[in-house]
Amino acid sequence: MNLTRIAVHESVEEALPGAALADALSDLDVPVEQVEDGTEFGPGDAVVAFGPGTGFLDADWVHCIRAGYDEFDVPAYEEAGVALTNSTGIHGTTIGETVAGMMLSFARGLYVYRDAQNEREWTRLPYERPFTVDGERICVVGLGTLGRGIVERANGLGMDVVGVRRSGDPVDGVETVYTPDRLHEAIADARFVAVATPLTEETEGLVDAAEFEAMREDAYLVNVARGPVVDEDALVAALREGEIAGAGLDVFAEEPLPEDSPLWEFEQVLLTPHVGAMTRDYHRDIAGLLRENVERVRDGEEMVNRVV
Fold first, then answer.
1. pTM over 0.90
2. Are 222 and 99 in contact (CB under 8 A)?
3. 63 is an active site residue
4. 5-90+279-299 and 92-271: same fold?
5. How confident is the model at residue 86 (pLDDT cuts 50, 70, 90)?
6. Tens of pLDDT, residues 151-194
7. How many C-beta neighbours within 10 Å does residue 28 have?
8. Is 226 a catalytic residue?
9. Which residue in 40, 78, 254, 255 is the catalytic one?
10. Which CATH architecture has domain 5-90+279-299?
11. Residues 112-139: pLDDT tens digits?
């Protein structure tokens, strides 16, 4: 691969300022341009994008600025001989902090007080409602970069940490690692169940009615994976029937979340608009990955985070 241009596609604006990313890459010896959808690509082009776009298969390399690449037609990229890379490995801290924030908000009732503040109401939770996360169990489903970021912060909060991993291999900071066939056993005693798996054929609908039935009635679900990993209809039913205590959701089956979604209605549901990994330095994180791969291409080395 002989890189002649890095094209920062307009779709990156979904997550970060394209101009800031282009500027962060300006020290490379490869020209960097901001481009719109419909731009023609060819040999030597590297396209940086949020999701799939027109003409991407004519480039030599496409980089997804997200960890999840499920929207890309991977077999088509493989057939076309186009390198596809993603941004896994840089979200552990941000996602870990987002999950920690949601858990603390649920435990201390902070979301209730914020709602009361909006109404200028001086109110307090019932005595039996607030608790501490110290000593509570969290089950982290998916122990890749995202999951390990959650594990590290949960340990720092004094929580009892178990997890679910396809291989079942041990992970530092996780007391017990279960395989997916033991999911119900893993979540049965957890106060928090944090879902951090990639979206695949195996994980789509992984958490549905049976899982909510297996969870404690005072348990909270936190989803920072992909929306379709959780069956939203089953989640709504579980919330309405009191099968679980609440949910923290950063991802949804349809985004933006439709105005008529029942999920807006629940006080005990925290909703964030797929921003769990976002910070003002995200463009620098992405630039670091791109810079490393540009150097690897130049040196004839294997690219990092290569999907195909």
1. yes
2. yes
3. no
4. yes
5. very high
6. 999 999 999 999 999 999 999 999 999 999 999 999 999 999 99
7. 16
8. yes
9. 255
10. 3-Layer(aba) Sandwich (3.40)
11. 999 999 999 999 999 999 999 999 999 9
Give me the pLDDT at residue 219, please: 98
Q: What are the residue boundaries of the structural domains of the chain, listed by start?
A: 5-90+279-299, 92-271
Give me the catalytic one of 63, 148, 226, 283: 226
pLDDT digits (tens, 9 = 90+) for 267-284: 999 999 999 999 999 999
Q: Minimal CA–CA distance to 144: which of 169, 116, 107, 108?
A: 169
Closest to 88 (Cα-Cα) out of 299, 293, 298, 296: 293
Question: Which amino acid does the sequence have at 271?
Answer: L
Provide the pairing of β-strand 137-141 with 83-85. Answer: unpaired
- What would the CATH number be for the domain defined by 92-271? 3.40.50.720
- Catalytic entry in 9, 66, 153, 274: 274
| Sheet strands side by side (includes 61-64) | 32-35, 5-9, 45-49, 61-64, 83-85
- Do residues 67 and 88 make contact, with C-beta atoms less than 8 angstroms apart? yes
